[in-house]
Amino acid sequence: MISNGVVVVLTAALLVCATAARSELSPTANDGNSGKSFHSAIDVRAGNESSTAAAGSSALCRQTIDIPGGPYRIDVDTCETPDLTEWTKTTLAPVIRDWYPKLAELLPSEGFKPPEDILVRFSASLKGVAETSGTRIRCAAEWFRTNLKGEAAGSVVHELVHVVQQYGKARRANPDSIPSPGWLVEGIADYIRWFLYEPQSHGADIPWMRERKNLRLRYDAGYRITANFLDWVTTKYDKSIVQRLNAAMRQGKYREDIWKEHTGQSLPELGDEWKREVERQLAQPGNHENGL
Ligand SMILES: [Zn+2]
Description:
Blueprint lengths: L13 E4 L24 E4 L16 E5 L6 E5 L7 H22 L10 E7 L6 E4 L2 E5 H5 L6 H14 L2 H6 L8 H16 L8 H5 L12 H14 L4 H10 L6 H7 L3 H16 L10
Parallel strand pairs: 4-5, 5-7
Antiparallel strand pairs: 1-2, 1-6, 3-4, 6-7
Helix pairs in contact: 1-3, 3-5, 5-7
């Protein structure tokens, strides 16, 4: 299901993410060649998803999260995995209640209404971490069970970003629209997750990079690396770059020129400058950042 091969162009409905897996940027995962080769990174397939097929009918394992004062309604289904029900109620539900409206606000675009009815279902059989198809998120219970105190909630935030992105709609409405680059789709999801939702986790910043070997510092490496790049561009050049890119991709109008128009630098130029800056920071002793 999740393969080592990667399809970067998002033309179909289903995003399979290994967003929280530490292994996604392991040394063996980085071939340094194309920006497209990830271990368990992205696999976009024609969606024939069956996320509701085994949803069950028990009210006990299906909770509805209503957002006060908002139109959103998010169902969390643990009918296949009742051992996770307590965690979803005590830990995940408050995160979703708090963050879904924030994600919707973070990624606006003209005429866009964020999805209002969302299903998060825990699957006993799904491998990997999680996947999103339209407004349905499936979470791999096996992975979640071993990450409840760590990366579990954040990985759902990453998937919720995909729900808000809705970049596939433009492609479905207009086959001539420009496909969104997969590295950027995942980079935005990880940027919001690691730099806005849980910066205290240091999951994509310099302290995190210090612990990695054979980092492939390419702006289009995807996930956490691209997230770091986006944070750098946001901080140094344009506080709204993520919003601009999001709006363009949602309308099927992504162009590389967007970077230059708003920063004065081309994308490769930005990538080179960012890489030099990261390398400079990595070369310094890391004793002042989060104790690392
Ligand atoms: Zn993802």
